[in-house]
Amino acid sequence: MDHDDYNAYLKQQYSHEIRPLQSVNDVISAFQKKLDIAETELSESEAIFLKMTIFNYINAHINDPNLDNLNFISYEVVRNEKSDHYYNHMRIRSDNERILVIIESQLNAITSNCEELKVDMNIERGIDTSHVNQETPEFIAYLMLFDAHNENH
Question: What residue numbers bound the domain in which 95 lies?
Fold first, then answer.
């Protein structure tokens, strides 16, 4: 399937599932109804994930004058029956490993060390209607999340 055909497929297949943009705090609240998610401190090894996340966000927003005021908050997805799907997807076997979610509300940024959960959270977060109306690359990338989600379920 070529690029234009794939974009047409994405729009036809998933346009009815588009959600309006929400804050990352709203996304966390929505997922706290589905999973047990609690604010947490990071271990030394997990801090590397946070440092890479901060580095990526700063590089992506290099011209933003508010970069000095960023406040990253980390959450743990508690391992239990509700979260087994995500833990099994990551093939986590050790009790020392856990799924993390990191947000920064000023940038409205959310990420996770679990790709499947990150996709699900970004779908839940939604997209600004200006991207939808103008069919920007961000809009196509958002629709691609639905394709990735369907492949993982």
Answer: 22-125
